[in-house]
Amino acid sequence: MAGPPDSLVSALVARGLVSGVEWHEIVTSTNEVAAEAIARGVREVHAVVADEQIAGRGRLGRTWHAPSGTSLICSLVLRPMVSSDVFGLIPLLTGLALVEAVDAFHPGLDAALKWPNDLLLQGRKAGGVLVEAGQGGAVIVGIGVNVDWRGVDRPPGVSDATSLAEAMGWGADRWDVLATLITAFSARYRGWHLQPIGFLSDYTRRCATIGRNVRVTTLQGPAISGRAADIARDGALVVSSPYGAITKVTAGDVEHVR
Ligand code: BTN
Fold first, then answer.
1. Gap between the Cα atoms of 252 and 258, Å rounded
2. Atom number, ligand 1, closest to the C-alpha of residue 59
3. CA 145: distance to chain centroid?
């Protein structure tokens, strides 16, 4: 399986969007390879891209399923120059970049987010983001996008997933998706350095969770049900219960309910 074309990598480097791109046919997880790259001292934004992962990681300890040749699997090494107090916003700004990349790739797909950063196309999951802390203040942003899942058998757990090609009705090239995503991400990442919460109004507009009735499962305590009212300045989801209680959720799995 061929990696990203040299011409694409050179263009991304020349435009100052990445410092380098590292390609692998198969890895455990690109987030793990990114952690090794951090230990080697790579500069930001270093991109690790793979065709396949044997231990792809999802949020909340889940596994990430992406058959060979079907998906964009990539991790970006960042070395942010802002207070670590706002690092918690990186998952949201990456989610916003993801929907903006889909817009740029193909407008009219109704791309939206399920808090914090599930990419939804026509209401079905087509991508996700896993942000992890790296050594020495570095950050690893892992992004998975289902590019072309036409004819792919979905195992239980991802039976409702869709892909860009299915939403569009025609084929999609993962390297085009990579270029578009890195361009969108770079703009949001730079903007975040200048104004860390400046993107939240755009995020809130693209977040399909806001205004919905939700059931949120967290790793601690019972599930929370209520209406997703807002996004707090730290990126938490604000849920209001029918009895007026307000809960701020910082990590959890959201289900949109009727
Ligand atoms: C989610 O659960 O929605 C987040 C999925 C994140 C998957 C990506 S694929 C590239 C990177 N490497 C991983 O092991 N996970 C992330």
1. 19
2. 2
3. 8
Percent of the chain scored above 70 by pLDDT?
A: 100
Q: Which amino acid is at 36?
A: E
The CA distances from residue 89 to 71, 211, 233, in Å, are 25, 20, 9
Tens of pLDDT, residues 7-30: 999 999 999 999 999 999 999 999
Q: Which atom of ligand 1 is nearest to the CA of 53?
A: 14
Residue owning the nearest CA to atom 7 of ligand 1: 144
Please identify, in words, the CATH class of the domain defined by 6-204.
Answer: alpha beta
Q: Which sequence spans correspond to the domains of the chain?
A: 6-204, 209-257
> What's the fold here for domain 209-257?
SH3 type barrels. (2.30.30)
pLDDT at 2: 92
Is residue 170 over pLDDT 90? yes
Q: Give residues (CB < 6 A) around ligand 1.
A: 29-31, 53, 56-59, 62, 64, 73-75, 118, 128-130, 142-144
State the Rg of the chain over Cα. 18
